[in-house]
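Researcher: Please generate the 3D structure of the following complex. Treat every line as part of one assembly.
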Amino acid sequence: MRYSGLRVLAEGLRGNRGWRPAWVRPEPREAYDIIIIGGGGHGLSTAYHLAKEHGLRNIAVLEKGYLGSGNIGRNTTIVRANYMLPGNSEFYSFSLRLWESLESTLNYNVMHSQRGLINLFHSDGQRDAFVRRGNAMINQGDDAILLDPEGVRRHLPYLDFENIRFPIYGGLLHPRGGTARHDAVAWGYARAASRLGVHILENCEVTGIDIEGGRVTGVQTSRGPIRAQKVAMVVAGRSSQVAAMAGLKLPIESHVLQAFVTEGLKPCIDHVVSFGMGHFYISQSDKGGLVFGGDIDFHASYAARGSLPAAEHVMEAAMTLMPMIGRARVLRSWGGIMDMSPDGSPIIDRTPVDGLYVNCGWNYGGFKAVPASGWCLAHLMAREEPHEVAARFRLDRFLTGHLLDEEGTGSQHNLH
Amino acid sequence: MLIPCPLCGPRDRREYHYMGAADYLDRPPPGSLPEAWDAYLHLRDNPAGRTRDLWQHECCGAWLEVDRCTVTHRVFGARLLTEARDAG
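Model: Done. Output below.
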């Protein structure tokens, strides 16, 4: 069933009795050509691109919970391409271009809103760094505009410009940056993949990975064993546990990242805004809630809830930047588990086990990468060679020294 | 989260700096192969459950090895790194 305005109108007149489930729920087959472990954004995107770009059909996506129950349905939804290092720059630039055609490609409204992203700076040194970053963004083919304080004031009049400790020196505007409806991205990919014949198996937890003679042969699941020629682990948040099933140890430490939502308010924050002197970023959802977040809690954790010190830091940064936010009431907060890699960049690569692939280490920037991540892993699995924009996301780069440390903070997992 | 400093008693998490897994204690000897340094610096068991990791109590400066659970945030105990090293 194709979605369109006409369809909505016709269904409205017929009492909405014609809608069908967006994806089918088949029983597992005994064997597939390809199994994707993990039905989050990256896994679904991978399955969709394997089917769409490479014509493969015998594919299953195994999700241990329900679709959208992981980080794809719980994030601050920011989409941007403001990276600088070769290796990251072209990848996120490619991803943003995929975002811009995503809705027409999937025939699904993911509410992608290019409302503009403004990264604020508060010192001369920070301004120099943003000038350099803006130039890198323009060189990679994307857009960046340097704003002086008056320029920022025209966009964001509600900020505390004369803050004594952190006065606003200006901002870097990335007009094509913005947000998207996160769970709609999962639903849109699931629906599009399902229409191409991909099996999406929910409540199907992988409990073991079968390897014979150094080659993957299938997986054990809570719904029985399933054989496969190729298996990809796309389970950021649980990467270490799933990789351990194949006897692998990853350069990953898991950390919890909190996010917060206020009660619904009338439109007041039109952009995505980030504070330069404390880790804080905010946007307003289409429902009206202010969605914001900050740093990870800094210690290894699988507790899907945050601790108070990090929450306090986020609230302090919010009040410093935009005192008006003090009148809003926080409705809820949540904590998601992040794969933190030693250089802050992801991994899309083969593993030492033949036929077994890994996509992990998204730190807390995985959402914007969903389209390109799936595209590149699908390319790697179908053609057995890395896609050119993801060629540096290698598993062995920590051994060879080819790190992609965008922030330049060193090779410790919790520093990114 | 309260972490018991052997010198100062139970103190709030805010007083501590986090370093990472206790793997950092097993520094390879000079001249080790790159694989050993990669394992030491980067590769982690990253358990969802009981783990040992390194924290510094910034008030007294003591480095601790903390035995805790990453799922429940329950802390089972902490000892000074000097004691951990002597105990082996």
